[in-house]
């Protein structure tokens, strides 16, 4: 059996555009929102893939490179290598006749009255600057030799922190953690807020009164107090903690959804569903909630930066993510402590945070404009 | 009007009561106690301490005791700052926090309203974009980034103002904290005023005022702005309560002896009475300012009546 494709008649009526298509077209015209979305996407991808590709693991400590300023030049600096090699060899009590740089590393001619002990290489190996030291040749009397070693060249394009860890790798992982936290908490807030608000709005009457009264009371609770208690209570398990934050941030969401529901439930399609005998549960799930998604989507994009800021704030107080894992707030707090000597430690994480927050704010504003029917 | 105020005050009491109850029991569920130090105290010492502070009684008795003392206005002794009662701590710290917060609030209102109104009057001009951009910047840069930078630039590099400290309330010491606190508020107020003014300028009553030939200045200030401050008023209620009760970040970074610091410290130290005291003070501020907002609404918007 075959299905014949029907030819589209030429005098077909002009297809109407749905509200969503309209909104999408408007959103695409908003340059700030599109640009922000692109930036955000790049940052998100970098934070997911970056830590695997980047040569420095985020928790690797380079003890000899503590608080190195950001630079594109590789470390160790050329002028530092040879004196370092000389000093290292002198510790092995040999005379250093000449040191020079080679393509792959360094080369030194050494001599000693008592003969060269091949174990001299161990002194070199012990210095973190050099690796794979070897004796390239010994003179016939065994009193002089040539030593070669590789020099590991490391780049820290954003500098290193107070423990000698690569800041860029840490920023990448921090973006990952901060975004995860933001999305996770927002998702929890969404789930609770939408369910609660839709139920209250749909049932109405006394139930609605009581439910919204509860929200009012929770509203006037000092919110930081709650978070701190939760942190104390849950330990510093960050997943649990941000489920908890999401569980607090749902209040606005519930109010928005309730307001929407109140107006939706008087609409014809809901009354039709009621007349057909659809259960309350199904009406809320199939008819009410999908129609509240517009304002909810806008609020969500604005809630993500709020949660990220909150996380940074908690981290700033020392209640956030624990080492060696890190988040933008932790990095900024560290940067603020080191601001006198190492400004890049504050600068780069702050820039990353500001970029994310900017992008999310612009996307949220763009969405709001796009979904606003008055703008048509 | 008076009846409305009294009724609202009356309805605040159960709210406060619930807040206090929830906070009291939540605090006690959390593991640890005020005297669980890193080096454990001797059992006998611990027992005596618990008896002095009534911590050995059953929880519900402690709760009733706390409520009774609270009704008398006694917030109890601080467990960690041993020489002070919670009331003393607030008597010292609250005026400091209120000074800084009120100054920041005033600054935010003046600057924010001016910026927002100018941006709205020149919608889609470079000035408008500048204000919106700066406002977004102000909202996205958190105070714990702004504070160290201000302190570094004006305190350390330029040396114009003290980098931190209270200096017994010298004016120079207040400048940076007030600016730090005010910046995000300026940004939010400017955005709210801009949006609302644009809307108000298009509304019928403003068009009518223009049609009567009133000068632009009068139209904007008397008719447009009056309608435009409504969202700001409802935003500023909770914001003012938060500002006046002190900011943890600003007080920590600039070393200001307000009450903002107590909250986190007290919660971490399990200083039960101090935490409860902070909760009570903050909630009273929140309730009070929400009431104030509703009353202001009636003054500003003739459609709202409280009878």
TrEMBL record, chain A:
The keyword Amino-acid biosynthesis does not apply. It comes from the Bacteria. Its main location: membrane. Pfam families: BPD_transp_1, OppC_N. It is found in: Cell inner membrane; Cell membrane. It is a multi-pass membrane protein. GO terms for biological process: peptide transport; protein transport; transmembrane transport. Residues 175-364 form the ABC transmembrane type-1 domain. The chain crosses the membrane at residues 32-54, 173-198, 210-232, 345-364. The keyword Oxidoreductase does not apply. Belongs to the binding-protein-dependent transport system permease family. OppBC subfamily. This is Oligopeptide transport system permease protein OppC. It comes from Propylenella binzhouense.
Automatic annotation (TrEMBL), chain B:
The keyword Transmembrane helix applies. It is found in: Cell membrane. It holds the Pfam family BPD_transp_1. The chain crosses the membrane at residues 12-30, 96-118, 130-163, 175-193, 214-233, 239-260, 272-300. One of its GO terms (cellular component) is plasma membrane. It comes from the Bacteria. GO terms for biological process: transmembrane transport. SUPFAM superfamilies: MetI-like. Residues 94-297 form the ABC transmembrane type-1 domain. CDD domains: TM_PBP2 (cd06261). It is a multi-pass membrane protein. InterPro entries: BPD_transp_1_N, MetI-like, MetI-like_sf. Keywords: Cell membrane, Membrane, Transmembrane, Transmembrane helix, Transport. The keyword Transmembrane applies. Belongs to the binding-protein-dependent transport system permease family. PANTHER family: DIPEPTIDE TRANSPORT SYSTEM PERMEASE PROTEIN DPPB-RELATED. This is Oligopeptide ABC transporter permease OppB. It comes from Propylenella binzhouense.
């Amino acid at each position: 059996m075959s299905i014949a494709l029907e030819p589209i008649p030429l005098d077909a009526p002009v297809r109407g555009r749905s509200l969503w298509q309209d909104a999408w077209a408007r959103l695409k015209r908003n340059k700030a929102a599109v640009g922000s979305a692109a930036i955000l996407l790049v940052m998100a991808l970098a934070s997911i893939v970056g830590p695997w590709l980047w040569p420095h693991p985020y928790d690797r400590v380079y003890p000899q490179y503590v608080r190195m300023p950001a630079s594109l030049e590789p470390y160790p600096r050329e002028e530092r290598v040879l004196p370092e090699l000389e000093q290292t060899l002198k510790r092995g009590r040999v005379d250093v006749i000449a040191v020079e740089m080679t393509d792959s590393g360094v080369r030194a001619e050494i001599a000693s009255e008592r003969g060269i002990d091949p174990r001299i290489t161990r002194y070199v190996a012990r210095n973190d600057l050099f690796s794979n030291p070897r004796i390239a040749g010994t003179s016939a009397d065994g009193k002089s030799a040539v030593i070669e070693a590789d020099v590991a060249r490391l780049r820290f394009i954003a500098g290193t922190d107070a423990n000698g860890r690569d800041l860029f790798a840490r920023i990448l992982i921090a973006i990952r953690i901060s975004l995860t936290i933001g999305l996770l908490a927002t998702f929890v807030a969404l789930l609770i807020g939408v369910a609660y608000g839709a139920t209250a709005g749909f049932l109405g009457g006394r139930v609605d009164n009581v439910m919204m009264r509860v929200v009012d009371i929770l509203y006037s609770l000092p919110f930081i107090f709650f978070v701190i208690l939760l942190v104390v209570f849950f330990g510093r398990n960050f997943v649990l903690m941000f489920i908890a934050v999401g569980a607090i941030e749902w209040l606005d969401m519930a109010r928005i959804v309730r307001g929407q529901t109140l107006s939706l439930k008087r609409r014809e399609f809901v009354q039709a569903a009621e007349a057909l005998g659809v259960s309350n549960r199904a009406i809320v799930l199939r008819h009410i909630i999908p129609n509240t998604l517009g304002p909810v989507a806008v609020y969500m994009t604005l809630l993500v930066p709020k949660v990220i800021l909150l996380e940074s704030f908690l981290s700033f107080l020392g209640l956030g993510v624990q080492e060696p894992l890190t988040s933008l707030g932790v990095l900024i707090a560290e940067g603020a402590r080191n601001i006198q000597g190492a400004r890049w430690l504050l600068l780069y994480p702050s820039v990353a945070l500001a970029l994310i927050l900017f992008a999310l704010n612009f996307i949220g504003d763009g969405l709001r404009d796009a979904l606003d029917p008055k703008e048509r | 009007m008076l009846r409305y105020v009294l009724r609202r005050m009356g309805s605040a009491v159960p709210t406060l009561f619930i807040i206090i109850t929830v906070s009291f029991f939540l605090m006690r569920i959390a593991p640890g106690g005020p005297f669980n130090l890193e080096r454990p105290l001797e059992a006998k010492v611990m027992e005596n301490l618990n008896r002095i502070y009534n911590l050995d009684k059953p929880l519900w008795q402690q709760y009733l005791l706390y409520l009774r003392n609270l009704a008398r206005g006694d917030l109890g002794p601080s467990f960690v700052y041993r020489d002070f009662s919670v009331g003393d701590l607030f008597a010292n710290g609250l005026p400091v926090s209120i000074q800084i917060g009120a100054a920041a609030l005033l600054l935010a209102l003046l600057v924010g309203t001016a910026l927002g109104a100018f941006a709205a009057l020149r919608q889609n001009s470079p000035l408008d974009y500048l204000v919106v951009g700066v406002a977004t910047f102000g909202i996205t840069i958190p105070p714990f980034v702004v504070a160290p930078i201000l302190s570094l630039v004006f305190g350390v590099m330029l040396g114009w103002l003290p980098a931190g400290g209270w200096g017994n309330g010298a004016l120079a010491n207040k400048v940076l904290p007030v600016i730090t606190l005010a910046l995000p508020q300026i940004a939010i107020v400017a955005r709210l005023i801009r949006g609302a003014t644009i809307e108000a300028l298009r509304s019928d009553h403003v068009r009518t005022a223009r049609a009567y030939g009133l000068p632009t200045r009068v139209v904007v200030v008397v008719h447009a702005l009056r309608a435009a401050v409504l969202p700001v008023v409802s935003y500023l209620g909770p914001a003012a309560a938060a500002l006046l009760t002190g900011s943890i970040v600003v007080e920590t970074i600039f070393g200001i002896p307000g009450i903002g610091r107590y909250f986190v410290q007290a919660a971490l130290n399990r200083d039960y009475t101090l935490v409860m005291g902070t909760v009570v003070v903050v909630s009273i501020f929140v309730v009070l300012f929400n009431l104030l907002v509703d009353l202001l609404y009636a003054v500003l918007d003739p459609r709202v009546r409280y009878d």
